[in-house]
UniProtKB/TrEMBL annotation:
Biological source species: Symbiodinium pilosum (Dinoflagellate)
Keywords: Membrane, Transmembrane, Transmembrane helix
Signal sequence segment: none
Residue spans crossing the bilayer: 40-56, 61-83, 127-158, 170-191, 197-215, 227-249
Taxonomic lineage of the native organism: Eukaryota, Sar, Alveolata, Dinophyceae, Suessiales
Keyword Glycoprotein belongs to the record: no
InterPro entries, sorted: AB_hydrolase_fold (IPR029058), Fungal_lipase-type (IPR002921)
Superkingdom per UniProt: Eukaryota
Protein name: PP2AA2 protein
Any single biological process term in GO: lipid metabolic process
Length: 597
């Protein structure tokens, strides 16, 4: 079986090993052999699993997809086993008259366009796997027409694999026709959906030509790069499709999760009172002592902004009651959320709440963080490139913060179908902020948010800084990603020195220890460290951050006599291995705490 590894991964070379026994001991040959066989068996295994799962779970379309895919995959494998016995078809007479030497054209196609049978099958395997996996996802979400579409495309792919055994010396002609049809379909799709139709269509044509003719066919490294890049892009494509499906499903579902108890009346919930601490750690003193003026010699502290940010995750009909519990003298002025089925639906994905103090001297705009798959899509659109650059830095040279990273982020919008604009990011929030600054020039404004909300708040602060708007609202962001590369993606180089604006930003980022999200991208502006002893996802929670600040600072972390719900999702910060679902379970296990009745 070791000699059956003649592929792009390991071409059998008699001079490569001193002996056959040495070749058998080679780990590379063994691994490449397993990959070579898995490349052919993987589609069948996926189809079989989809069929079995569809039967067990009662999903008929998933079972249909799996059964049809298994049948087509098995048919192709059986036909390929007696390929030598298949007689090629006789082309039309007019084709023979115009092309007297089709064998030479076929040899040219096999050398430069990968038209031999093994190469064609290998090229179509990743596409077939992607179709099967996408069909499985669509069937799992009960998107029937999308599932049928995947099945129809898979059937045409099946017919194409069968037809190539009958092409003979005229495979180059059918390949050209196939390429022409696919190019017309792709360009029509791009022109009808892209924001820059002609530019994107031209760039896609150029990239396709570069990919087709850019790798020397007789050099194994070229084919390896081709297959590995195709597999990597397929994985990214698959993940994004899953997120889009989740976003589509979640857009029709109302989120009723609340950090308070399930009782309709918040007053019926149990609360944990935040007591006073006599000694504070000097390393975290700013978290406890930093003050932000709101007029009449009053002020807010960092934990207060965290509580405002946490209110954005509450159901809209519970926000006012939750606000009255934390800040009895404040009121809810405005709430922007998705208004389904109305013409008032905003063009971007920003969701925020606006709170105003009793004396109308201060307004806090709190932006919601990542709560559903729609928010994840906005995360991807802004911070995917910084995350990719930092991931590359983990295994190779760090190119994220130097000129290479900035150049890649700045020119990201030049790629087809990948443009990110202000209008699709936070235009509604920026419009409200500018309008409020103009309408109430004597009022003090603050921006706050958690995760994605904090990142968007910092982007608004950067936009106001670039526009030289004064005075600007101060921004307090919790567990938010950085700005440098994301701002380059957004502005695409229209602002020459965004780094210079970093010192002028009025934003403060609260970064919990161990949080992964706030480590994405390079930070602009000020940053404060917050304690956390949990895992990455645990430390990212706004409730976990507030719980650690309260446990560190006590009542000095806030300007109000705060009691927090016992149903807050937190964990035991004394042990990394102990996950505590709520404060109530924590205080039950620790006698030094007690929830109030």
């Amino acid at each position: 079986i070791m000699h059956m590894t003649h592929s792009i991964w390991v071409l059998h070379d008699e001079t490569q090993f001193d002996s056959q026994e040495q070749e058998h001991r080679s780990v590379c040959v063994t691994m490449c052999t397993l990959f070579h066989w898995g490349e052919y068996l993987f589609p069948t295994l996926i189809c079989a699993c989809a069929f079995v799962f569809g039967l067990v779970d009662g999903q008929s379309f998933l079972a249909l997809l799996g059964a049809c895919s298994v049948l087509m995959s098995w048919t192709v494998m059986m036909i390929s086993s007696f390929f030598d016995k298949i007689q090629p078809w006789n082309p039309p007479a007019w084709l023979n008259r115009h092309f007297g030497h089709p064998d030479e054209l076929q040899r040219w196609g096999e050398k430069w366009c990968r038209l031999n049978h093994s190469a064609q099958k290998r090229q179509r395997h990743p596409f077939a796997i992607t179709l099967i996996m996408l069909g499985t996802v669509f069937a799992a979400f009960d998107f029937r027409w999308l599932t049928i579409s995947c099945l129809v495309i898979l059937f045409f792919l099946f017919l194409r694999l069968l037809s190539m055994y009958k092409e003979g010396n005229f495979g180059w002609a059918t390949a050209l026709v196939e390429a022409l049809i696919e190019a017309i379909f792709l360009q029509s799709l791009v022109i009808s959906t892209a924001a820059r139709p002609m530019l994107d269509a031209s760039l896609i044509t150029l990239l396709c030509a570069m990919r087709q003719f850019g790798f020397q066919r007789e050099v194994r490294a070229g084919d390896r790069i081709r297959v590995v890049s195709l597999m990597g892009l397929g994985v990214v494509h698959f993940v994004i499709i899953i997120i889009v499906c989740l976003a589509f499903v979640s857009s029709f579902q109302a989120t009723r999760w609340s950090a308070f108890c399930a009782s309709p009346n918040i007053a019926d919930c149990q609360f944990q009172h935040i007591g006073r601490r006599s000694q504070l750690s000097e390393s975290y003193t700013p978290l406890c002592q930093m003050q932000f003026p709101i007029g009449n010699s009053k002020h807010l502290k960092i934990a207060d902004f965290g509580l405002f940010a946490s209110l954005t995750y509450e159901p809209i009909d519970r926000v006012e009651a939750a606000l009255q519990h934390y800040f009895p003298t404040w009121r809810l002025d405005f709430a922007l959320r998705a208004e389904k089925g109305t013409a008032k639906q905003p063009t971007d994905w920003s969701r925020f709440l606006m709170f105003t103090s009793e004396d109308n001297r201060t307004t806090i705009i709190a932006i919601r963080g990542t709560l559903d798959a729609v928010d994840v899509l906005q995360d991807i659109s802004l911070w995917m490139i910084p995350a990719i650059l930092q991931t590359i830095g983990l295994v190779g040279p760090d190119i994220g913060a130097d000129c290479w990273g900035i150049a890649m982020a700045r020119h990201a919008n030049a790629f087809p179908l990948c443009s990110v604009s202000l209008q699709s990011t936070y235009a509604s929030l920026l419009s409200v902020v500018l309008d409020m600054l103009t309408t109430y020039p004597d009022r003090t404004f603050y921006l706050t948010g958690h995760s994605l909300g904090g990142g968007v708040a910092k982007l608004v602060d950067l936009e106001l800084t670039v526009r030289q708007v004064n005075p600007r609202p101060a921004t307090i962001a919790f567990s938010a990603p950085g700005l440098m590369l994301a701002s380059q993606v957004l502005y695409s180089g229209h602002v020459s020195s965004l780094e210079e604006f970093g010192s002028a930003l009025s934003s403060i980022s609260i970064k919990p220890t161990g949080d992964v999200v706030s480590s994405v991208d390079v930070e602009l502006g000020s940053r404060l460290a917050a304690p956390c002893t949990g895992f990455a996802l645990q430390c990212h929670s706004i409730y976990s951050t507030l719980w650690h600040i309260f446990s560190l600072c006590g009542s000095s972390a806030t300007t109000h006599n705060v009691s927090i719900p016992c149903t807050w999702p937190v964990f035991d910060f004394k042990s990394k291995m102990s996950w505590e679902r709520t404060i109530e379970t924590y205080v039950t296990k620790h006698s030094e705490h007690a929830c109030d009745d």
